[in-house]
């Protein structure tokens, strides 16, 4: 923030960096070697659907873009209890680069077609040998990641979340404000 913006009390909104999604495959290797967590092969983008033909066409284009891949993963669109839409991609858990490319494509398509205000987050779930899960969550409007580790209907493993944050702090832009670490209950893949 510059001096002039500070004097006027205006803050520039933080710009997202969707290319940060391409750092998730290397972070997955770090998670596997350090904590024993592996990707589930699922990833999702959460957004608020808009009414109208333009949005319907954009969503159809996103689905076609992913399904036209010769090694197309499974794609489904669901809605959660809060009215948000989740576009869920399920493929080979060894192909993290492909999954992240698909998530990037969905986010970019929504953004380029003027629906970026409805984007909430993208999530890549991980699981360890004992079945413990967490989602590495990308906040679209902040351009940062945070881990979300639910342990029940309304409880979460804060210690695991902080451990993942500390482990990946050098690889990914981690969200420093813990109040922005949204509880994404019932997220697909968790």
Give structural notes:
Helices cover 32% and strands 22% of the residues. The protein has 190 residues and is an alpha+beta fold. It has one domain. The longest helix has 17 residues, at 96-112. It is globular and about 45 Å long. The termini are far apart. The mean pLDDT is 90.
SSE blueprint:
Elements: H1 3-8, H2 24-35, E1 38-39, E2 42-47, H3 53-67, E3 74-79, E4 85-90, H4 96-112, E5 119-127, E6 133-139, E7 144-148, H5 158-168
Pfam family, one: PspAB
InterPro entries: PspAB-like
Helix content: 25-40%
Strand content: 15-25%
Query: How many distinct helices?
Result: 5
Order of helices and strands: HHEEHEEHEEEH
Question: Could you name the key traits of this structure?
Answer:
alpha+beta, 7 strands, 22% strand
